[in-house]
Amino acid sequence: MPRPQEPDRATPAEPAPEGAVRPPREDSRQPGPTPRPPATNDETGLDAVGPAPAEGDYRAAMQELEDRWRRTLADLDNLRKRHARELERERTVERARTAAAFLPVLDNLELALSHADADSDAIVEGIRAVRDQAVNVLELLGFPRHAETGVPFDPARHEVVSVVDDPDVEPGTVVQVLRPGYGDGDRQLRPATVTVAKRE
User: Fold this and answer.
1) 196, 163 Cβ separation under 8 angstroms
2) Which of 3, 32, 111, 171 is deepest in the core (most CB within 10 A)?
3) One-character DSSP codes across 24-57
4) Burial class (CB in 10 A: 0-12, 13-18, 19+), 86
5) Cα(153)–Cα(136) distance, rounded to whole angstroms?
6) Over the stretch 72-128, which tens digit does the pLDDT of each residue have?
């Protein structure tokens, strides 16, 4: 029995109806370049900025900053040491100046002691003169003496150690100075120790 004829594979297929889209043939597809995947944000940013700096540039910049930082620290340390030396030198000069101002006082005290066998009144006068000289030195150094009586009590200049009832004196008045004070305000060596009239 004869086999039915198979359609020739090479025979063109029936024409497609008018307006229909014909699928492409297997042998008609041409190999082309593989489409590039869309660029990520990182890749786009690199392309927009340009080539990244070399690692050596970063190292050089960091080294320069570290060198400048170390030089600044060294300058500050040298400045601190120089300031400390100058301050100590000023203190030494001031101490020497103050001590030198009291040398004549010591000389006069020794002179008074050398005449201890002389008249007692002369010794007293000599010691009083030496005292006045020392007070003058303190005043020249900026520490005037305060030993006034009959003045109103001032808590900034006086330290009360006792209160007396004296009807002849205005209340709150300095009646007696037990120990004089020296200096004023922030340059006060000590306040005067006084006795004050009692307040009513």
Assistant:
1) yes
2) 171
3) PPGGGPPP-PPPPPPPPHHHHHHHHH-SPPPHHH
4) exposed
5) 24
6) 999 999 999 999 999 999 998 888 888 888 888 888 888 887 777 777 777 888 888
